């Protein structure tokens, strides 16, 4: 399916990822499927992405290819979500830096050239590091990220602000906590356990967690993440006072607590703990986030706590098996 830029077009780069898939679905509901162009370097894992609306295969590092897509669709908004996440980027640091930074520069420069109205780019709590106050981490504080992902997100935030000041680009960003949803699997982050654990539970399988049971991390259910993203993008420009990226929170929990919340529904569910290299990353991140500026500037309020998320996740995974991960042999 294809469409030409109607002036209402929205481009989602990285539409095949965990957030991108759900955000594309939400945007298509809101703006009409034919007005939301899904772009990803890989062909869709989910047929819906290309069946429900226009899809283009696009490598955001290909400036000419990006320019051609911008020229063809003339999007009024661009959501640039393509990136290597924390654990993956540590295994491939130079490419992680190249994709996360050069990809961002290509999108920002294309937006200036094509006069794009609004640009969304996700940051992360990964911008904080071992010397950042870990409880109720403030909007402005010490930021010494120890991962390439976190370094690229911290640098990217500062570039967003520079493009806002120097080019008047309406760039907007959120420092997401770990995101959990049932429709799409995470892509190589340190918080992926919090999604994998539900799929194991619904399969009736034990889960081996790669973080220690008392590792507290800020987390958010996907409906809240989608609400925050759209609330931010729909807010009048004068309400957006921070052009690096807003702290965003909803809840914090540990592997032990999410296990207990699942066991209230599936009592015989069992979890063992086998920390790996991701434990070090998790130990350098905040335990909880002060998102008072997001609440003050554009009215952020989360809806889901751990209990409500677990009930919703298990219901959907049990009733909609198309979303249930086909666990590989070694995972069983
Ligand atoms: C990651 N899911 O684990 C991402 C996120 C806060 C974590 O940025 O890398």
TrEMBL record:
One function term, GO molecular function aspect: L-threonine 3-dehydrogenase activity
All copies of domain NAD-dependent epimerase/dehydratase, residue ranges: 10-249
Gene3D superfamilies found in the cross-reference section: NAD(P)-binding Rossmann-like Domain
Biological process, per Gene Ontology: L-threonine catabolic process
InterPro entries, per the entry: Epimerase_deHydtase, NAD(P)-bd_dom_sf, NAD(P)_epim/dehydratase
Signal peptide: none
SUPFAM superfamilies to which the protein is assigned, alphabetical: NAD(P)-binding Rossmann-fold domains
Family statement: Belongs to the NAD(P)-dependent epimerase/dehydratase family.
Name of the molecule in the record: NAD-dependent epimerase/dehydratase family protein
